[in-house]
Specification:
This protein is of the alpha+beta class. The protein folds into 3 domains: 100 residues, 3-Layer(aba) Sandwich (Rossmann fold); 71 residues, 2-Layer Sandwich (Dna Ligase, domain 1), CATH 3.30.1490; 225 residues, ATP-grasp fold, B domain (D-amino Acid Aminotransferase, Chain A, domain 1), CATH 3.30.470.20. The strands form 6 sheets. The protein has an 8-stranded antiparallel sheet, sandwiched between helices. Helix 4 packs antiparallel against helix 5. The longest helix is centred in the C-terminal third of the chain and has 20 residues. The protein is globular. Bound molecules: ligand MV4.
């Protein structure tokens, strides 16, 4: 095993990785920015080193500094977590050059999947179904794209080849509006990724977003751990994930799982990865992209398979075989994850910053909280607003929902606003309960205002107010003297009493 692992990340995922290392008897090195001096991952690690000022570009994205620290602290591996340097092929390569293991895929796999047009072309060759669209790689001119568009058909999507996260994505309804949309998509992609290249795909409407978890070792073993349903998103930010998806049966799970394994093998994949699919109403599935990293929502898969994905990552990075063969992967029960964000659901999900003064975490059967914050910690605007992940397990989906409701009720965070009320409203929504939702549900069919109105019980509120007014009146009419509030000490009272009775 490794002796020491450097965790090149912050927040809950850094804590999650440190915990896995602890259990494996591996020492840990944390890195942190000036805003994170008092962060939990710094406290949990065996050693910690300052990277620089709060902005990511000056801290968590400084590959050079991180690798220097790895060398000086004699770490034999680096875990990048998600975000930051996780999908940078040059970082994976730089680790290898220094003889430090990168706990993730090799540079060539990251590169092959990082360019979305190249990823499409690669998996098509492996027999993986993709959405009809452009199949060329390299830069296509506007003229070429405009010629190709009518063959694909409208509506279609313009997507950035460097993309992901919906940036540089445009929905096109007709050929007439396409030149304008091409230009704005390219401009957005250029500013987000420094690369304005785009490709086209037919728009699949009313689809679900299903992703398959993959694990692969250096001995050619690739297995899948089933799916996660990730359709509940807002502006391409996932809010809730669950496993299994109510849209899949065992047969479809096995089919999509084996297709995902094929896609991973097509880029010679090693370590943990995720294949994203769109699943339409007729159960047709299409490869969208591959995420070549550990994902935020990995815990729901851990809950239903009992497999510690981070430990498997470390194991295979060390050159060991996976601990499981495909037939040994068993699914049990249902798991849901709510992303707890420091943002105000009543005010357009505006990020909320400030010091967390109090925090009470839900616990008890089937409840897991992965968090990087604690009372006294300050939430700054420099990083992602996700402060915790609340994960529950239940024997059935219904049990998991009841448990999530109970856990959300127990959760108390004071000091910043959170999206907990959003999740509570979601748990009460009939469409969510029925499992009938697609990627447009939150944005098109879900409103906090309506939910609040239908939930609010004005009779109860009136009764509470009346009680408070009555209470204040009583307080005013009588002055209650409590023990120790007397102006005279007990000794004096005893003295007087004794003198009176002498
Ligand atoms: C699509 C799609 C429909 N048809 N591709 C959005 C982010 C990126 N990873 C892929 N995305 C989509 N690609 C085709 N051909 C719809 C989406 C999409 C979406 C996907 C998953 C979750 C939420 C979404 C919200 C809007 C659009």
């Amino acid at each position: 095993m490794f002796k020491k692992v450097l965790v090149a990340n912050r927040g809950e995922i850094a804590v999650r990785i440190i915990r896995a290392c602890r259990e494996l008897g591996i020492e840990t090195v944390a890195v942190y920015s000036e805003a994170d001096r008092r962060a939990l991952h710094v406290r949990y690690a065996d050693e910690a080193y300052l990277l620089g000022p709060a902005p990511s570009r000056e801290s968590y994205l400084r590959a050079d500094k991180i690798l220097n620290i790895a060398r000086k602290s004699e770490a034999d591996a680096v875990h990048p977590g998600y975000g930051f340097l996780a999908e940078r092929e040059d970082f994976s390569a730089a680790c290898a050059d220094l003889g430090i293991a990168f706990i993730g895929p090799k540079p060539s796999s990251i590169a092959a999947m990082g360019d979305k047009a190249e990823a499409r072309a690669t998996v098509i060759k492996a027999g993986v179904p993709v959405v009809p669209g452009t199949e060329d790689v390299g830069n296509m001119t506007n003229e070429e794209l405009l010629t190709k568009a009518p063959q694909i058909g409208f509506p279609l999507l313009i997507k950035a080849t460097a993309g992901g996260g919906g940036k540089g994505m445009r929905e096109v309804k007709s050929l007439e509006e396409m030149p304008t949309l091409l230009q704005s998509a390219r401009r957005e992609a250029e500013s987000a990724f420094g690369d304005g290249n785009v490709y086209l795909e037919k728009l699949v409407e009313g689809a679900r977003h299903i992703e398959i978890q993959i694990l692969a070792d250096t001995h050619g073993n690739v297995i899948h751990l089933g799916e996660r349903e990730c359709s509940l998103q807002r502006r391409h930010q996932k809010l809730l994930e669950e496993a299994p998806s109510s849209a899949l049966d065992d047969e479809l799970r096995e089919k999509m799982g084996s297709v995902a394994v094929k896609a991973a093998k097509a880029v010679d994949y090693v370590n943990a990865g995720t294949i994203e699919f769109l699943l339409d109403k007729d159960n047709n599935y299409y490869f969208l992209e591959m995420n070549t990293r550990l994902q935020v929502e990995h815990p729901v898969t851990e809950m239903v398979t009992g497999i510690d994905i981070v430990k498997e990552q470390i194991r295979v990075a060390r050159g060991r075989s996976l601990s499981y063969e495909q037939h040994e992967v068993k699914f049990n029960g249902h798991s849901i994850e709510c992303r707890i964000n420091a943002e105000d659901p009543y005010n357009n999900f505006l990020p909320s910053t400030g010091r967390i003064t109090h925090s009470l975490l839900p616990t008890g059967p089937g409840v897991r909280v992965d968090t990087g914050v604690y009372p006294g910690f300050e939430i700054t605007p420099f990083y992602d607003p996700m402060i915790a992940k609340l994960i529950v397990w239940g024997e059935t989906r219904a049990q998991a929902i009841l448990r999530m409701r109970r856990a959300l009720e127990e959760y108390r965070i004071v000091g910043v606003r959170t999206n907990i009320p959003f999740h509570q409203t979601l748990m009460d929504s009939h469409r969510f309960m029925g499992g009938q939702y697609d990627t447009r549900f939150v944005e098109e069919r879900f409103s906090m205002e309506e939910a609040e109105e239908s939930r609010q019980n004005y009779d109860d509120i009136a009764a509470i107010l009346a009680t408070m007014v009555a209470h204040r009146e009583t307080e005013r009419s009588s002055h209650i003297v409590q023990r120790n509030e007397r102006d005279t000490s007990n000794w004096k009272w005893v003295g007087r009493w004794e003198r009176m009775h002498r």
